[in-house]
Amino acid sequence: MIRQAVLLVGGRGTRVWPLTESMPKGLLPVAGVPFIELQFRLLAEVGVEEVILAVGTDHESEWREYAESVATPHVVVSVERTRLDTAGPVAAALDRLDERFLVLNGDVVLEGQLTEFVANAPDLPAVLALVRVEDTSAYGVVVTSPEGVVERFIEKPPAGTAPTDTVNAGMYLMKREVLEGYPQGRLSFERAVFPELVEAGHLGGVVIEGVWLDIGTNELYLDTHDAVAAGRSRLVQFPQKTEPWVWVDPTATIGDGAEVSEAVVLAGATVEAGATVRRAVIGPGARIESGAIVGGATLVGEGAVVSSGCELDNGARVAPGSVLPAGSITFAPPE
Question: How far apart are CA 162 and CA 170, in angstroms?
Answer without folding.
Answer: 20
